[in-house]
Amino acid sequence: MTEAVIVEAVRTATGKRHGSLSGWHPADLLAATLTELVKRTGIDPALVDDVIAGCVNQVGSQALNIGRSAVLAAGWPESVPATTIDRQCGSSQQSAHFAAQGVISGAYDIAIACGVENMTQIPMRAQVSDPAYGQPFGPLVDARYSDRENFGQRGRINQGLSAELIAQKWGLSRRDLDEFGARSQQRAAEATKQGLFSDEILPLRAKRIDKETRELVEDGSTLSADEGIRPGTTAEKLGNLKPSFTPEGSITAGNSSQISDGASAMLIMSRERAEQLGLRPRARFHSFALAGVDPIMMLTGPIPATEKVLKKAGLTPGDIDHFEVNEAFASVVLAWLKENPVDQAKVNPLGGAIALGHPLGASGGRLMTTMLYNLERTGGRFGLQTMCEGGGLANATILERL
């Protein structure tokens, strides 16, 4: 069977809201990562069979197939096609699935999986705040869950309240969540200090949108490190933060992922094609899985997705050298750990979205890029990545380092 391999992966540093990447047009931000793939590999962009871009909020500056806009913004031949997909937070992980599966099936020789999100310019509320365009779920979905009541609300709830339900179900205390949030910050700060992200990050010129004036500000600086990391964070400091979603809750800004801006991209092709082009296959896609769960308790999908992907791979948790479990909220990862009691040193060893940020459409590629580089650095063989996704979904992927 044809093997799909990653030959290059790159990401921007993650910018915080109103930070150093907030003034970049999302198409140009994604184009920068495409350009870097060409620079690092010397590949002719005309050889790319498809560019598959993940993006969640496909409105405004992220509308009208931003994948295609990025290809054109990069100056690539007009013959290179592109599409844009949405599997919520796992969008660019799903783009990697589609790209790799296209290679395995023989539909593609070479594909790019990528993703972008500028959450400063296009906030999460952008798709639902204007009633003139209707509500996103529709009356049949609303009716299906109308008998459910949580936190004084009937029917569907937001992800923060779902994270609260997870904390309750798995018996996670506020202290548990804050200790995890602090650990994410500490790991990310130490990794940055040691330069462990340097090779995977594409430094970019800072372009900021001023929070007050909304004007574009360029001061000549460069963003080359993730902007949301807070060195010196402790569980005690996080314990002073107020709950974000319900007064008596335990989910706060300190144990939740950050609102961020960023992009990521991976060059994927058949192993045979890579060797023909003189490129080094760095990892192969070993196994894929998807899961759907209750959309009220919507963030538990990584638990069944992990079980499914390990079963497909014929592996056990003990075979995995590096786990990336997206830190949408601390309760998501801690619940996953309750069901998968693996060595916590292997889970998000360089920190996660609580510290590094979560630019929705780019995050799947960011996690996979970080996992790839760390497997190479440590000599690990297998990496497993899983992400919870809005609506009660999850992706899981196993990579094997070559």
TrEMBL record:
Pfam families, per database record: Thiolase_C, Thiolase_N
Keyword Methyltransferase carried by entry: no
Gene3D superfamilies on file: 3.40.47.10
EC number(s) recorded for this UniProt protein: 2.3.1.16
Domain Thiolase C-terminal: 280-401
Alphabetic keyword roster: Acyltransferase, Transferase
A GO molecular-function descriptor: acetyl-CoA C-acyltransferase activity
Matching InterPro entries: Thiolase, Thiolase-like, Thiolase_C, Thiolase_CS, Thiolase_N
Biased composition (Polar residues): 247-256
Leader peptide range in chain numbering: none
UniProt domain Thiolase N-terminal: residue ranges: 5-272
Active site annotation, chain numbering: 89, 358, 388
Region Disordered, annotated ranges: 218-256
Record bears the keyword Acyltransferase: yes
NCBIfam families found in the cross-reference section: AcCoA-C-Actrans (TIGR01930)
PANTHER family reported in the protein's UniProt record: ACETYL-COA C-ACYLTRANSFERASE, BLR7806 PROTEIN
Family stated for the protein in its record: Belongs to the thiolase-like superfamily. Thiolase family.
Annotated protein name in UniProt: Acetyl-CoA C-acyltransferase
Organism: Actinomadura physcomitrii
